[in-house]
Amino acid sequence: MTTTDPTRHAYGLAEALLAEPLPRRWSHSLGVAGRARSLAPILGDDAALMEAAAVLHDVGYSPRIAATGFHPLDGARFLRDQECVDERVVRLVAHHSCALLEAEERGLRHELESEFALEEPSLVDALVFCDMTTTPDGAHTTSEARVSEIVGRYGPDTIVGRFIQRAAPEIHAAVHRVEERLGQVV
User: Fold this and answer.
1) Which of 110, 111, 163, 168 has minimal Cβ neighbours within 10 Å of its Cβ?
2) What is the pLDDT of residue 6?
3) How many contiguous H segments (helices) and E segments (strands) does the chain have?
4) Residues 8-36, buried b or exposed e (16+ Cβ, 10 A)?
5) CA–CA distance from 98 to each of 4, 13, 101, 136, 162 (Å)?
6) For residue 135, with 0-12 CB atoms within 10 Å meaning exposed, 13-18 middle and 19 or more buried, which class applies?
7) Burial of 67 (C-beta count, 10 Å sphere; 0-12/13-18/19+)
8) What is the spatial distance between Cα 88 and Cα 53, in angstroms, rounded to a whole number?
9) How far apart are CA 52 and CA 146, in angstroms?
10) CA–CA distance from 121 to each of 25, 65, 97, 139, 178 (Å)?
11) What pLDDT digit, counting tens, does each position of 122-176 carry?
């Protein structure tokens, strides 16, 4: 990122892209970032990186930058190409919450995989935890309730509904792994 405070820049950028056109998505992003801050005891030196990725994870929904209609890819491309965001943050945004499975449903798996490498598994798990334990309004929830809410909102036979049902076992496993790590430091 181009400023001396990458987390502050991330918040400003996410707010500029989401707050007005998508206020509920902005509330969700703030909630996800709050969850990321709560993981600082297990993230160590990567805590700020995770918070930046958390607040930016859904910027691809912004009408200003949506291109393919697949928000992880659109967001990651924008952050890489237009904003020169830290490569690790970009990779987390690109692959957040089992995005490869949704990319497969959309016929975009090769593009996502070839453009963006996977980030360290413990950080991937942490972002899954943050995203999938936060409601669309930014409140805390369980991963089971979140998956159910997504299926209900989109429908079970839509691209998102099919993807999230396929991803559910990995989502729940990632949340469990993060909760175990948190339990070890408390």
Assistant:
1) 110
2) 80
3) 11, 0
4) ebbbebbeebbeeebeebbbbbbbbbbbb
5) 31, 24, 6, 18, 12
6) middle
7) exposed
8) 9
9) 22
10) 25, 28, 12, 25, 11
11) 999 999 999 999 999 999 999 999 999 999 999 999 999 999 999 999 999 999 9
Give the global pTM.
0.95
How many Å apart are CA 142 and CA 110, to the nearest integer?
31
Q: Which residue has the tokens 């904003």?
A: 83
Q: Please check whether residue 45 is in contact with residue 34, taking contact to mean a CB–CB distance below 8 angstroms.
A: no
The two most distant CA atoms of the chain are separated, in Å, by 45
CA angle 19, 174, 51 (to 5 degrees): 35
d(CA 159, CA 138): 24
Task: Tell me which amino acid residue 16 is.
Answer: A
- Distance, in Å, from the CA atom of 95 to the CA atom of 102, rounded to the nearest integer, reads 10
The tokens for 8 are 């502050």
CB-CB contact of 154 with 160 (8 Å): yes
